[in-house]
Amino acid sequence: MASLKQWVKKTVAKWVDPNKEERMVYLVGIMHEGLRTQKEAFSVSRAFQGLNYDEDDVAIAAERLYRAILTRGWEDERLTQQERKVARWVARSLEIPPARVSEINLEFAQQFFASALAEAMEDGVLDEDEEARLAEIAVSVGMSTAQFVNRFFLANGEGFLRGIFLAAVEDNHLSEEEWNHLLTTAEKLGLARDRVLAAISPQAQQFVEHVLADAKSDGRLSKQEEDTFAWLFSKLQLPAGFKQYVEGELHLLRTLTAIDEGRLPQVGCPSGVAIRAGEIVHLHEHATWRQLRMLTSGPRQDDHQGTITLTDNRLIFSSQTKSHSVNYRKIVTYRGGQDWFEVQTEGKPVSTFFFPDKSPVRYPIFETALGRANQMIVAKIRGSGPSRHIPRDVRQRVWQRYGGRCAECQATDYLEFDHIIPVAKGGSNSDNNVQMLCRRCNLKKSDLI
Asked: What is the pTM of this model?
């Protein structure tokens, strides 16, 4: 029982010992004086031989003194060869276990390595002096810069690379020179190319999404934009799913560009539709024709379910209840959207056609086929008014304002620049009238306009 009481007393004293700090200062003072006066002859075990001091307290005091020596050595954020030699001698004299010495040395080195990286991140350039400084810090714990980064500072190194990448694409452009600089910096840090690509993957995807939104802003894909995406695909290791999504968007843009240039798609002649000899079919889909009839009792709407066929000179609606054919040359007004369009011939009521789903290419096909047949006699309701093209500097500011996210749902994919007040209704291309919307929210908005 007596031994138990002694153990409890000793243990509780360690928990609530009001004199411990005073004792630590005293022990550190003895060790420091011994090192100063005895130098190589000093040994912590001999210094406290025969004295009644707790071994744990002596070990803690030894570590505290060693940390103080290192703190003084790192005052200029460098540890010279002579200072490393002194530190090794102090650690041996204080009889700190080698494994523990390594842990303390790494703790100090990581702290100053992080500080050096942070300074380099300020301008995104790792110059020769900064590179030498990192190497010197790594050498203090017997490593190369590459070994240090890969073992202890991978996260910081990757963050550094992300910072360089974001700085490079801040103007929504990534040049060959900027890309090579990024890879060179990574090489200096000892990071392999695959690791670099993995590190910047989230930022790279957001950048490509930005470039894609810019390309979609005018509904066309230029040769320069094609080359840009080909270059980005060759340099950036984009996830397969994301790359497939981007390629799908580019395919759509190519189709819209071809339609805008008058190169319409061609489909085979559909069965059950009377196609004339030499007539070219550009589109054939299910649709509902809403026919407006003016009766003596007043206007009446009739809906007919069937198919609509667009050829190079006619619009053909085929149904079991009613069929209809309109020569493009007889159309005087027209307008439409992604799942509907309406036409009017001279002296006739408006005919509206509805489709079961939305498509960004359906109405442009109709509009272009109509224009090719006879542009001179068609009044384009949709095409009048100011340009929908949003200047590049406006797109850049809008992207920054919304942080590359949809203004409604915060989505980061399928992003589009949208006019808050449509151009057709007098909206401008100013910053205040342009927002970021994902395609889903943009379609919801169009349903309400």
From this structure: 0.69
As a whole number of Å, the CA-based R_g of the chain is 37
Closest to 31 (Cα-Cα) out of 74, 71, 68, 85: 68
- Give the Å distances, CA to CA, from 217 to 42, 91, 172: 77, 66, 14
Is residue 338 within 8 Å of 280, Cβ to Cβ? no
Helix (H, G, I), strand (E, B), or coil: what is residue 323? Answer: coil
Q: How confident is the model at residue 387 (pLDDT cuts 50, 70, 90)?
A: low
d(CA 315, CA 308): 7
DSSP three-state, residue 314: strand
Query: In the numeric block, which tokens belong to residue 403?
Result: 């942080």
CA–CA distance, 10 with 400 (Å, rounded to integer):
63
The single-letter code of the amino acid at 12 is: V
Beta strands at 434-438 and 415-419: parallel, antiparallel or unpaired:
antiparallel
Give the DSSP H/E element, type plus range, for residue 104: helix 98-121
User: CA 187, 189, 195, 196: dihedral to nearest 10 degrees?
Assistant: -70
- The token pair at 445 is 């908005």
Task: Yes or no: say if 210 and 404 are a contact pair by the CB < 8 Å rule.
Answer: yes
**How many other β-carbons are positioned within 10 Å of the β-carbon of residue 121?**
18
Q: At what angle do helices 223-235 and 240-260 cross, to 10 degrees?
A: 170
- Two tokens at 178? 């900027």
Give residue for tokens 């319409």: 264
* 170-179, 293-302, 362-371, 431-440: least confidently modelled range: 293-302
How far apart are alpha carbons 123 and 247 in whole angstroms? 34
pLDDT by residue (tens digit) across 20-75?
A: 788 888 888 888 988 989 988 888 888 888 777 788 888 998 999 999 999 998 88
CA distance 146 to 139: 11
Please name each of the domains of the chain with its CATH number.
281-380 (2.30.29.30), 392-448 (3.40.1800.10)
Asked if residues 372 and 312 have their Cβ atoms less than 8 Å apart, the reply is yes
164 phi/psi in degrees, rounded to 5:
-65, -45
Among 360, 388, 402, CA closest to 210: 402
Using an 8 Å Cβ cutoff, are 332 and 346 in contact? Answer: yes
Instruction: Compute the residue count for the chain.
Output: 449
